[in-house]
Design brief:
alpha+beta, 5 strands, 9% strand
Length: 341
């Protein structure tokens, strides 16, 4: 983004030297700096949105346009052709930037605003191109006084400011989302923090009571985790935590939620899930962990206590106690098993 802004400023300064410096420095190079800046912005938008974009087609287009612009500037001095080349090039580049933002997985107001600015700017450039193509007669800098020409030049500075503002809003929203995510999620495992998860469980219990539907929780504890830390070190133990959370997440539905309850203990909330289905989910998790093979990790297992919200007077505490008692039974019965409350 800063490269885009810098190139726009340098280009604008270059245009102010017309009549004082050679055309190469007062017109040709400043004109090319603008599309170069837009390509940098396109790259930034791709990186920001984690999109697999390639700038090669745009760079190739820029190279062809630069050759054409050099020809109509230094060889034949054709103002109309220069306008066609520049406005057509910018229309494509701004449209490419808008398309990139449209491809973002999540779009909020900042993304829609910035996308609209790029689309509007591309439309102005395209209209400018069409108006010049349809112009009858010889077009020169002196007689280029149409309404489209005025809109083109008056809207462009506004568009540049709006694009930068939009990108700043997008960056600020992303930073806010990351801070919110860090506040809610355990930094090691990526699972929800205990407080955040318990709040979600409490809300789901209230909703389940209100709509008369079932819900279940899984209380999970890694077996012999202290021995893993003592034998292999805490770094390996941390990697086991990360591996476990990732494996469990792969087996859960979109509406299910996993949180780190404390240490090597995890809690899973299963909305709209009866006890039998919850126990089946627990068994899938247990089998996945027992059978998983990671070359850099020791083998390990998990014990799981399953509890279901099946009475009107159940609350978060009683549900957790039921799951914890079931987990205790699983541990006493030999570990590596799932037990229903």
């Amino acid at each position: 983004s800063w490269r885009f802004s810098l190139l726009m400023v340098v280009g604008a300064i270059g245009f102010t030297t017309r009549g004082q410096l050679p055309v190469l420095f007062s017109s040709f190079l400043p004109t090319l700096l603008i599309p170069v800046g837009v390509i940098f912005m396109h790259r930034s938008l791709g990186l920001f949105g984690k999109l697999a974009l390639s700038e090669r087609p745009l760079v190739a287009l820029l190279g062809g346009a630069a050759i054409a612009l050099a020809w109509v500037t230094f060889v034949v001095d054709d103002y109309r052709a220069r306008v066609i080349v520049v406005s057509g090039l910018l229309a494509v580049l701004f449209a490419a930037c808008g398309t990139s933002i449209y491809g973002y997985r999540i779009k909020r107001f900042p993304e829609w605003f910035t996308c609209a600015i790029y689309a509007a700017t591309a439309a102005v450039m395209g209209t400018r191109l069409i108006s010049v193509l349809l112009y009858e007669g010889t077009l020169t800098l002196e007689n280029d006084t149409s309404a489209i020409h005025d809109i083109y030049f008056t809207s462009f500075p506004f568009s540049l400011v709006a694009m930068s503002l939009g990108f700043l809003m997008m960056a600020n929203r992303e930073l806010q989302s990351r801070l919110e995510s860090q506040a809610l999620h355990d930094p090691m495992s990526g699972a929800y923090r205990r407080d955040a998860l318990l709040e979600m469980v409490q809300r789901e219990i209230a909703a389940s009571r209100r709509h008369g539907r079932s819900m279940s929780i899984l209380m999970m504890d890694l077996d012999n985790f202290k021995a893993i830390n003592d034998t292999h070190g805490h770094l390996v133990g941390d990697n086991v935590i990360v591996h476990f959370a990732a494996q469990v997440t792969q087996l859960l539905r979109t509406q299910d939620v996993i949180g780190r309850y404390g240490g090597e203990e995890f809690l899973v909330m299963l909305p709209q899930t009866a006890l039998d289905d919850a126990l089946a989910t627990a068994e899938r998790i247990r089998h996945r962990i027992a059978e998983s093979i990671a070359t850099d990790l020791p083998s390990y297992t998990v014990s799981i206590g399953v509890a279901c919200l099946d009475t009107n007077d159940s609350d978060t505490l009683s549900l957790l106690k039921a799951a914890d008692k079931a987990l205790y039974v699983a541990k006493r019965a030999g570990k590596n098993r799932a037990v229903a409350a």
